């Protein structure tokens, strides 16, 4: 029997990544929007050409279906007839044809941001590839009940070949507490490196070690209380998670291993994991942008590192859709400073509402007390890029300002070598400028910070800069405090803005190491 993937996002191993470069979209014909495609998939029309049958597909058979009107693509072992989807694909038909008649998994991971292939293409499912993946060598070993001894896993073999030093874990107990200790053997571990979730009897600890994910995933043998504590000893990379027993009884084992327990995998190959967060508040910031505040469950520890994003997930017309958003502070000015983790359970998002969009109007319809699913943090930005930095330049357009909020706060409070921070903020009109008064107040309060607003449609009385990103604007803006100052330039905005800005920066002889683009 074929195992049909469920209608959820993302399914096994189908995490969506924010890539290092933008993806070009093509104009779609009238009636070819995402909502139109969802309607078509629910119409009952046979989109596979197989009249509801599911088949096992050999490599030879897959290769035969490589034309626009007969295009099959394999993604993670499942084969889809994407011919009906051609005209609905935002990246254009040519992008899909690059994978025609072949395994398109790698291409999919490179260029897609939020498309849920399992849900979007469910009605296009032809079947499964005939070759079945082998079980890992230690599969039977991993099924044994945990007793405090470390079971063998793929960790050691993987790390010996290409990863960091092999992490491990142990546990011990008192009458009232159970302590799980993770030994990462890395010195750059902090509270933002670890995410902990307790749902039902499932206890999940994910630790990010360089570009790898080390997972502890256990069905606990006894009940615990909701709240727990997480501590990190940074100089040795040791993590301690202290659980409170519901009953003062001796545990004979920690529990049973669940999926991917005690595994270390490249981060890019792991699944996104979600927890439901409650909407606590939303308030207007501009005429079309709002500040949303959500509260993490009491049984979750999650701290989003500076410069990283999460995915928000909603069910729309029966299909789960996700979008990436970078959390911000609740304010820029000190009197409203964001609470210090780990005590804070709140995450803030600045979201522009697009009335004709699919996702943001649904997000805006949420009432206080409703829930939205929030993923683990993602992103390539590393705090180490700030090391010994002296001049920080931020280039933002519209809601591309969001990753700059925590970057700005961290730079002004946590970098002793910093001489100046400059923000050039591009918008269409004055009404579009997010947190203008707060930015101006921050510039008055901290002499290292300066902000310049650039409008593309300014009023007649506007005395500031106007136009679009250009070499002339940048060359004047990007003046170092000293000739040999160590510089970092961060840029974020719509894809054309970011791509053009990156080109101008390279033309101005800034190196790759001096530039970080946030793209989503």
From TrEMBL:
<keyword id="KW-0479">Metal-binding</keyword>
<dbReference type="Pfam" id="PF04969">
    <property type="entry name" value="CS"/>
</dbReference>
<dbReference type="GO" id="GO:0004128">
    <property type="term" value="F:cytochrome-b5 reductase activity, acting on NAD(P)H"/>
</dbReference>
<dbReference type="InterPro" id="IPR037908">
    <property type="entry name" value="p23_NCB5OR"/>
</dbReference>
<dbReference type="InterPro" id="IPR017927">
    <property type="entry name" value="FAD-bd_FR_type"/>
</dbReference>
<dbReference type="GO" id="GO:0090524">
    <property type="term" value="F:cytochrome-b5 reductase activity, acting on NADH"/>
</dbReference>
<feature type="domain" description="CS">
    <location>
        <begin position="164"/>
        <end position="255"/>
    </location>
</feature>
<dbReference type="GO" id="GO:0020037">
    <property type="term" value="F:heme binding"/>
</dbReference>
<dbReference type="InterPro" id="IPR018506">
    <property type="entry name" value="Cyt_B5_heme-BS"/>
</dbReference>
<dbReference type="GO" id="GO:0005737">
    <property type="term" value="C:cytoplasm"/>
</dbReference>
<dbReference type="InterPro" id="IPR001199">
    <property type="entry name" value="Cyt_B5-like_heme/steroid-bd"/>
</dbReference>
<feature type="domain" description="Cytochrome b5 heme-binding">
    <location>
        <begin position="54"/>
        <end position="130"/>
    </location>
</feature>
<dbReference type="InterPro" id="IPR007052">
    <property type="entry name" value="CS_dom"/>
</dbReference>
<keyword id="KW-0256">Endoplasmic reticulum</keyword>
<keyword id="KW-0560">Oxidoreductase</keyword>
<dbReference type="InterPro" id="IPR039261">
    <property type="entry name" value="FNR_nucleotide-bd"/>
</dbReference>
<dbReference type="InterPro" id="IPR008333">
    <property type="entry name" value="Cbr1-like_FAD-bd_dom"/>
</dbReference>
<keyword id="KW-0285">Flavoprotein</keyword>
<dbReference type="InterPro" id="IPR017938">
    <property type="entry name" value="Riboflavin_synthase-like_b-brl"/>
</dbReference>
<dbReference type="GO" id="GO:0005783">
    <property type="term" value="C:endoplasmic reticulum"/>
</dbReference>
<dbReference type="Pfam" id="PF00173">
    <property type="entry name" value="Cyt-b5"/>
</dbReference>
<keyword id="KW-0274">FAD</keyword>
<dbReference type="InterPro" id="IPR036400">
    <property type="entry name" value="Cyt_B5-like_heme/steroid_sf"/>
</dbReference>
<protein>
    <recommendedName>
        <fullName>Cytochrome b5 reductase 4</fullName>
        <ecNumber>1.6.2.2</ecNumber>
    </recommendedName>
</protein>
<dbReference type="GO" id="GO:0006801">
    <property type="term" value="P:superoxide metabolic process"/>
</dbReference>
<feature type="region of interest" description="Disordered">
    <location>
        <begin position="1"/>
        <end position="27"/>
    </location>
</feature>
<keyword id="KW-0520">NAD</keyword>
<comment type="similarity">
    <text>Belongs to the flavoprotein pyridine nucleotide cytochrome reductase family.</text>
</comment>
<feature type="compositionally biased region" description="Polar residues">
    <location>
        <begin position="1"/>
        <end position="18"/>
    </location>
</feature>
<dbReference type="Pfam" id="PF00175">
    <property type="entry name" value="NAD_binding_1"/>
</dbReference>
<dbReference type="InterPro" id="IPR001433">
    <property type="entry name" value="OxRdtase_FAD/NAD-bd"/>
</dbReference>
<feature type="domain" description="FAD-binding FR-type">
    <location>
        <begin position="272"/>
        <end position="384"/>
    </location>
</feature>
<dbReference type="InterPro" id="IPR008978">
    <property type="entry name" value="HSP20-like_chaperone"/>
</dbReference>
<keyword id="KW-0349">Heme</keyword>
<keyword id="KW-0408">Iron</keyword>
<dbReference type="GO" id="GO:0046872">
    <property type="term" value="F:metal ion binding"/>
</dbReference>
<dbReference type="Pfam" id="PF00970">
    <property type="entry name" value="FAD_binding_6"/>
</dbReference>
<dbReference type="InterPro" id="IPR051872">
    <property type="entry name" value="Cytochrome_b5/Flavoprotein_Rdt"/>
</dbReference>
């Amino acid at each position: 029997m074929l195992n049909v993937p469920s209608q959820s996002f993302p399914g096994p191993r189908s995490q969506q990544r924010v890539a290092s470069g933008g993806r070009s979209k093509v104009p779609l014909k009238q009636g070819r929007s995402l909502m139109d495609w969802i309607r078509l998939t629910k119409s009952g029309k046979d989109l596979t050409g197989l009249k509801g049958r599911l088949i096992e597909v050999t490599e030879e058979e897959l290769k035969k279906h490589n034309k626009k009107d007969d295009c099959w693509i394999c993604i993670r072992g499942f084969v889809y007839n994407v011919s009906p989807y051609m005209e609905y694909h935002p990246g254009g038909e040519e992008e899909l044809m690059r994978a025609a008649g072949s395994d398109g998994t790698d291409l999919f991971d490179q260029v897609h941001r939020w498309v849920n292939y399992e849900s979007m293409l469910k009605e296009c499912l032809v079947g499964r590839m005939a070759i079945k993946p082998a079980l890992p060598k230690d599969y039977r070993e991993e099924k044994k009940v945990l007793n405090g001894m470390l079971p063998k896993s793929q960790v050691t073999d993987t790390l010996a070949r290409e990863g960091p030093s092999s992490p491990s874990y142990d546990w011990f107990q008192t009458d009232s507490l159970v302590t799980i200790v993770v030994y990462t053997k890395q010195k750059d571990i902090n509270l933002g490196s670890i995410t902990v979730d307790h749902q039902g009897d499932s206890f999940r600890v994910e630790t990010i070690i360089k570009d790898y994910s080390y997972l502890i995933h256990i069905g606990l043998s006894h009940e615990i209380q909701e709240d727990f504590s997480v501590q990190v000893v940074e100089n040795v990379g040791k993590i301690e998670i202290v659980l409170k027993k519901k009953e003062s009884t001796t545990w004979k084992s920690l529990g049973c291993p669940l999926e991917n327990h005690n595994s270390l995998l490249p981060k890019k190959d792991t699944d996104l994991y979600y927890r439901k967060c409650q909407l606590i508040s939303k308030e207007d910031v501009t005429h079309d942008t709002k500040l949303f505040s959500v509260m993490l469950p009491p049984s979750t520890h999650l701290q989003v590192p500076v410069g990283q994003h999460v995915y928000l997930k909603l069910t729309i017309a029966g299909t789960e859709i996700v979008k990436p958003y970078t959390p911000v502070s609740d304010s820029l000015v000190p009197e409203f400073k964001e609470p210090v983790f780990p005590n804070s359970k709140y995450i803030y998002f600045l979201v522009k509402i697009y009335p004709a969009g699919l996702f943001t109007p649904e997000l805006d319809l949420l009432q206080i007390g409703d829930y939205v699913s929030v993923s683990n943090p993602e992103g390539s930005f590393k705090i180490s890029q700030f090391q010994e930095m002296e001049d920080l330049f931020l280039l933002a357009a519209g809601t591309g300002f969001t990753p700059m909020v925590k970057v700005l706060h961290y730079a002004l409070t946590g970098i002793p070598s910093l001489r100046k921070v400059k923000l050039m903020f591009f918008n269409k009109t004055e009404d579009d400028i997010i947190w203008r008064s707060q930015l101006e107040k921050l510039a008055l309060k901290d002499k290292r910070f300066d902000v310049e607003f650039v409008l593309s449609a300014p009023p007649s009385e506007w005395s500031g800069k106007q136009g679009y990103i250009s070499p002339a604007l940048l060359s004047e803006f990007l003046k170092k405090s000293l000739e040999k100052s160590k510089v970092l330039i961060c840029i974020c905005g719509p894809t054309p803005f970011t791509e053009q800005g990156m080109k101008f920066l390279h033309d101005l002889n800034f190196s790759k190491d001096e530039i970080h683009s946030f793209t989503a």
